[in-house]
Design a protein that fits this description.
Layout (H helix, E strand, L loop, with lengths): L2 H9 L4 E3 L2 H8 L13 E7 L4 H10 L1 E8 L1
Parallel strand pairs: 1-2, 2-3
């Protein structure tokens, strides 16, 4: 479930977050009514296989700046 993640991002004014590409996919697939507006751009660090381009685009639209640290 992505709703608790969005809730924590908004309530705790998160600035940095780490997660695997499936977490990114979960966040971008969240229906608009369950998303929260972020107060600022959140730095999102990921590793493993590179995320698909549509997922990266969705993350940017949702207010995240994604950095690929290392991967396959």
């Amino acid at each position: 479930r992505a709703e608790p993640i969005w809730q924590a991002l908004a309530e705790h004014d998160v600035t940095h977050l780490c997660g695997a590409p499936p977490v990114m996919a979960l966040l971008v697939s969240t229906p608009g009514a369950e998303r929260k507006t972020l107060a600022r751009t959140v730095e999102f660090f990921t590793a493993a296989a590179p995320p698909p381009r549509p997922t990266l685009a969705g993350m940017e639209q949702a207010g995240f700046n994604v950095t690929q640290l290392y991967g396959l």
